[in-house]
């Protein structure tokens, strides 16, 4: 299966378990892989035969910068669900939500969750 990849999208959101996270907010990074058949788009050079990645970016931005979730797992799940709603040609997707400023005592770059979802038939 072909795929469209958007990597290291950066947003500012207020997701987290702690009140400080919900009040102050922090950066989040998102990577997605969108699995779809790109053959017809490649042959016809027609955007209608593909998934417009500018629209994908805006969809993800609305979610990450929108309604507060306690878990980045929930953020990833909402992203995947909304992508299937907005892009009917999407067959499956991988969504990775990265939280660089996780409030964990210790030395680490980030925490992340990655989910893979397929369109329900």
UniProtKB/TrEMBL annotation:
Pathway: Cofactor biosynthesis; tetrahydrofolate biosynthesis; 2-amino-4-hydroxy-6-hydroxymethyl-7,8-dihydropteridine diphosphate from 7,8-dihydroneopterin triphosphate: step 3/4
EC number: 4.1.2.25
All residue ranges annotated as the Dihydroneopterin aldolase/epimerase domain in the record: 4-117
Keywords in alphabetical order: Folate biosynthesis, Lyase
GO biological process per UniProt: folic acid biosynthetic process; tetrahydrofolate biosynthetic process
Enzyme class, spelled out: lyase
Catalytic activity: 7,8-dihydroneopterin = 6-hydroxymethyl-7,8-dihydropterin + glycolaldehyde
InterPro entries: Dihydroneopterin_aldolase, FolB_dom, GTP-CH-I_C/QueF
Pfam families for the chain: FolB
Regions that span the bilayer: none
A cellular component term, taken from the record's GO annotations: cytoplasm
GO molecular function annotations of the record: dihydroneopterin aldolase activity
Family affiliation: Belongs to the DHNA family.
Protein role: Catalyzes the conversion of 7,8-dihydroneopterin to 6-hydroxymethyl-7,8-dihydropterin.
PANTHER family: DIHYDRONEOPTERIN ALDOLASE 1-RELATED
NCBIfam families membership: folB, folB_dom
Protein name: 7,8-dihydroneopterin aldolase
Gene: folB
């Amino acid at each position: 299966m072909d795929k469209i990849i958007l990597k290291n999208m950066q947003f500012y959101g207020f997701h987290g378990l702690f009140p400080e996270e919900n009040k102050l907010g922090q950066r989040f990074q998102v990577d997605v892989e969108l699995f779809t058949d790109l053959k017809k788009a490649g042959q016809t050079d027609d955007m209608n035969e593909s998934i417009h990645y500018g629209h994908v970016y805006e969809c993800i931005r609305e979610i990450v910068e929108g309604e507060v979730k306690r878990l980045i797992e929930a953020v990833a799940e909402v992203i995947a669900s909304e992508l299937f709603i907005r892009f009917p040609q999407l067959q499956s997707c991988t969504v990775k939500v990265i939280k660089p400023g996780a409030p964990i005592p210790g030395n680490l770059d980030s925490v992340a969750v990655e989910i893979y979802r397929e369109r329900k038939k």
